[in-house]
Amino acid sequence: MLVHLQGPWSPWFGRLTLGDIPYTNPVIIFAFLFTVVAGIALAVPVLYYRKLGYIFREWLCSVDHKKIGVMYIILGLVMMFRGFIDGMMIRTQQVTADGPHSPGFLSAQHGYLPPAHFDQIYSSHGTLMIIFAVGPILTGLGNIIVPLQIGARDMAFPRMNAISLWLSVSGAMLIMASLFIGDFSTAGWVGLIPLTELPYSPSVGVDYWMWALQISSIGTTLNAINIITTIIAMRAPGMRWDRLPIFTWTTLSTNIIGLTAFPILGVALALLGADRYLGTHFFTGGQGGNLMLYTDLFWIWGHPEVYFLVLPAFGIISEIIPTFSEKPLFGYTTMVAATFAIAGVAWAVWLHHFFTMGAGPWVNTFFSVATMLVGIPTGVKVFNWILTMYRGRITYTTPMLWSVSAILMLLIGGLTGIMLANPAINYTVHNSVFVIAHFHCMVLLIAFAIFAAIIYWFPKVFGFRLDEHSSKRFFIFFVLGTVTVFTAMFALGFMGETRRLDYLYDPQWLPLLIVEEIGIVFYCISVGYFFRMLYVSIRDRGRNQCGADPWGTARTLEFLTHSPVPFYNFAVTPHVNALDELAWRRANGHADTPPDHYEPVHMPNSSMIPVIIGVLSFGFGFGMVWRIWWMAGFSLLAIIALIILGSFMPDPGYTISPEEMREMEAQHRAPGIMADSHPPHPAAEERLV
Amino acid sequence: MTDAHHHAATDPLAHPEVQQASAAAYISAYVLTVGLLGVGLFMTERHLVTPHSLIPVIAAFAIFLLVAQSLLFLGLDVSHSNIWKTVSLMLTVPLFILSIGLTVWMFHSLDHLVMSPEMPGMSLQPGTLQ
Amino acid sequence: MSAPKSTAGGAVQLWEYQPKPHDPVSTKTLGFWLYMLSDALIFAGLFAAYGVLDQPMNAAGGPTAMQVVHPVAAFWQTLAVLTSVLAYSLATVALKAGSRAGVALGILAAMALGLVFLGLELNDFVTLFAMGATPERSGFLSVFFVLIASHGLHMAFGLLWMLVMLVQIMRFGFTTEVVTRLLSLRLFWQFQASVWVCVYVFVYLKGIVP
Predict the structure, then answer these.
(1) Is C96 part of any domain?
(2) For residue C22, is it within any domain?
(3) Among the four A291, A604, B26, B48, which has the fewest Cβ within 10 Å?
């Protein structure tokens, strides 16, 4: 059954040999040194301040939805940084490799990256940005905000929540490993078939890509189960469906997609894996395989995945615009309906990613019309946001600036999307960078919303505001970079530049490529301001401390409890009386009415099991990639054994007594997210497992 | 999870999902499934109807059985403890139909256009077992 | 621009000091049910692949469905899996009465029949392999074996779960956790019957339709 591979294989190390470590490639050595320096920069203060135990106990073993959310967001930002560097390298390669007379550096004939290396970079750029940057950040936001918005103390399944996180981390670590051990896929983030088949990609690159996606997508599915159950079963009293905050609605719809679409990705990757490991013929050219079947299965997931990412972004914009317009959201009901309409239509549009397959006019027409239909609910949303701002008392804080720009990005990305939905146009611009510019507008609108959300909810989670001065500069340069790069890219698409080129043959493209490179410089400046924003904000955190509602005009339940949010979320479960509960309480003079007494509160214990499962799933993935069967087998069996073992040790949780609660609340020393969150309960410390 | 503690004191066996177990429902689901699959087998083996109409008939059997099993085996209803299971299933069924149906349709259309048997090299006949 | 109106008359309630406890059993079975819907879509993907690859050209000159499926023999598998599901379902009827012996007996019967099912399937695979009909032979056989083996893998996983539950029933009795797991396992096991109906009709019966 097992495919016989060419090349060395040993029982202990599988395909792994010393030669697989690319220590001769200067670009990778630089990346390696960079990672090492960053690692040391993080490890030294941790060791110096003796925080290793704290990090392990309070973060790695935590089942607190806010900490898990923060870790998701940190993972996403780190991956986004790496993805950004990849993007920078792609642009720099193209601007230096235009025309037959372009110079070659290092070992490249044109530019500074040889084709195989360039191909790995665009593959990892896409994979990282979509799966490991934007995805985890939005999941993290949902994790933090949704339980707070519905007045719950935690997710429905706190331990499984941690398992989801560590599976995502383990997938991301596999991609990081591919940078320094072996290589990465050269077949794009979509896994271009039949290039991903063993005869054409015999190295471990495709396996890294495949297992990283597979493992993290299991994490996404588990998280979707958790969020949906939480929203259905854990809402505070009075939180009826017609009072559910819009971000919670969008997170619900997005996780319905997460629950139902990711299994299809799992099937596509598993069948590809069967081809690569067992020698089956699902997607091979000969022997009765059908390579378009892979493309079909991939995009059955791939298109809903796009909405999986964009819907929470819509939710974020819908939260921020009312807050800073000091008005309720215009058209709440239509907003919810539009959200679910988009999520529903998402399932009938996937063929527009391969109109040129040749499935015939009827098929193309069906998918073209379905795709254009998406424009209707999206248009409803845009008008709702604009009408929310109309005659509002608008404050241009940074979250608001990001949100308004996101609407403009949605307009550009959406209208070019409607163009691409027309098969006749699609046949012309298919595979050109026009398509790239279109979907970057869409993904960047999500990024805009993400930055809006991080700045908007950061004070809620950490108790101090981010520095507005540098965050506005971060915003300006980021938007400037986006406009510069992608306006030029739309034009280059019309001029005939196709995707994924490591060498560009037409010297006439050079001026616009230089414009794109200037945009990259703007992006780099904006990244600098991002780090400055973090630095200044943390330095001045004492000055920027904030109360329960840092913005003064927030409307939803999460701004009712303290900032930073204590580990028990709400000392007493709130009773919800209206849509936009906080705005209602403020209008009726109840905003500062505290509970008059406390009741015992029951909380789940931390657990070591999730992080161990994460480590083992990395072991499984690494073992499968290098075909180290003992390692993969051991890890898989250990995961199953751990889950069974865990089921024999149900978590009794612990109880915060009313006295403890009164003390914490009265002295305003409710522990924030950075403090030791364990209650003064001696028994809780020992029950990590 | 949070408030599970207080609830754990009550008898889990009194939970409606335990109490809805019904031998009669399970046995009827069993008899229906075995019976209808048996009839399907009989019809197929004996070629009782033309191949063209047989596929819709056995497909209808399958759909009928899936509905029957959802009601009798899985015990789906609109009671307080089951309503969300029913709703989520109703939301998932269209996704089934879309993902399988549209896939089969587009590949049927594709094969018709680009894999026509009249085209050169397309006359490959299925062989027999060695 | 009107502010939200207060509830008409009476004191407003801002805090819920004694919230009605969430139902831990239904919350967990709902979570498990959602997992199963997700699992069902794995089968949707596999059936879609089967629908595409079940064409004469995908047999690549090798055996077609007509030559590898035997619906009459597979009917014994149908009987085994359905009777196993019935046995487990009757175990949950015994659970209603709180009978530990009844539940254990039902689970043991379900396990025995599940093993019979897997034995028959394995035997079928061995026969086909011996005839040279292996997954590597053609695209059609790839999807045929992977679809059937995926269902078989679910069955094997269910058997392991039942073994664990037998131990937990003996050790803990009918605690909330154990009862919740028994209910989730009921959903899982009955779901296998539903998948098998699709496999039997769309692979075995349809396979011999000319």
Answers:
(1) yes
(2) no
(3) B48
